[in-house]
Amino acid sequence: MNYPMTVPKAELHCHIEGAASPSLVLRQAEKYQVDVSSIINGNGKYVWSDFTSFLQAYDLASSVFKTPADYALLSESYFRMLAAEGAIYGEVFISPDHAQAAGLSYRSYVEGLAAGIEQAKEGTGIEGRMIAIGVRHFGAASVERVAKEVVGNPHPLVTGFGLAGDEREGHPANFAKAFRIAGEAGLGLTAHAGEFGGPDSIVAALEFLRVKRIGHGVRAIEDKDLVRRLVDERIVLEVCPGSNTSLGVYSILRFHPVNLLRRAGVRITLNSDDPPFFHTTLGKEYSSVAETFGWSTADQVEVTRTAIEAAFCDDGTKQRLLVRLESADVQ
Ligand code: ADE
Ligand code: ZN
Q: How far is CA 237 from the centre of its chain?
């Protein structure tokens, strides 16, 4: 007997260092004799109290990945886990600054991560790509250096460039040059905006960084002209509801604007951001949003279709993924 399968999923917004499970970080910490007791409690869960301390916990967790093999282990475990939840495609943000802080060159970092992604693909069929990010609170020079490094060392699985970090620091205009360098090299562009910043932050990212995707972007709901603009320009939002409720952007999922944005015609994808830090997974994001807002299976398939259409991968790969999606026996 054939059982209907779970909705095929696709993810566009997950930070690979933020996807490391506490148990993996504990094992790595033991290997390198790093004290991580300030960020992992006795129950094996990450602890942090606000966005600033979350970013600090993320930095410490990243510091226990130091070699290409460490990163291969990290990406392979994450992509296998995604595939087990029904994902057919995933893009992960990679942070050359964090690799450099751990003593690893950009090339070795990317090669390690790519090896893990390939292994997971061989075992499960999941497709993966990487988006290199600059960290906003490290400043414009640092973000520009990342853009140059990425463009100077092309890799077939690094297909995008983005901006993450503390949105409360630095105007997007400061990062325009980095985005121009990355865009001219053919990389897909995305930037975190409208998470801790309001609508103006999103408008500035659109104007100065020329992005077609926005990380989060949910605070667009505070400005109806901006919502209209997102619809008209077919901007895709990488929405991360569990991250937003965990970090207190919205108090509970019912008050999250993802449903209103979708009903207004904005193109929406669902994502897990830094899953174990926010006690979530991509599968939980799909199911909790579907349950809270009454999204049907067809609605969830549409979310995946939007993600594939907006993915930073070649057209042939998109076509194959769309065929997998449309031929899935979901009910
Ligand atoms: N880096 C990792 N997670 C992030 C988030 N939610 N916002 C901004 N930068 C991040
Ligand atoms: Zn993010």
A: 11
Q: How far is the CA of 2 from the centre of ligand 2 (A)?
A: 37
Q: Is the CB of 97 under 6 A from ligand 1?
A: no
Give the strands of the sheet with 188-193, arranged side by side: 9-11, 87-94, 127-135, 158-164, 188-193, 213-216, 236-239, 267-270
CATH number of 67-327: 3.20.20.140
Under a CB-based contact definition with an 8 Å cutoff, are residues 175 and 143 in contact?
A: yes
pTM beyond 0.70: yes
Atom of ligand 1 nearest to the CA of 136: 9
Whether the CB of 58 sits within 6 Å of ligand 1: yes
Residue ranges covered by each domain of the chain: 21-64, 67-327
Active site residues: 195
Strands 158-164 and 188-193: parallel
Per-residue pLDDT tens listing for the chain (331 residues):
456 579 999 999 999 999 999 999 999 999 999 999 999 999 999 999 999 999 999 999 999 999 999 999 999 999 999 999 999 999 999 999 999 999 999 999 999 999 999 999 999 999 999 999 999 999 999 999 999 999 999 999 999 999 999 999 999 999 999 999 999 999 999 999 999 999 999 999 999 999 999 999 999 999 999 999 999 999 999 999 999 999 999 999 999 999 999 999 999 999 999 999 999 999 999 999 999 999 999 999 999 999 999 999 999 999 999 999 999 988 6
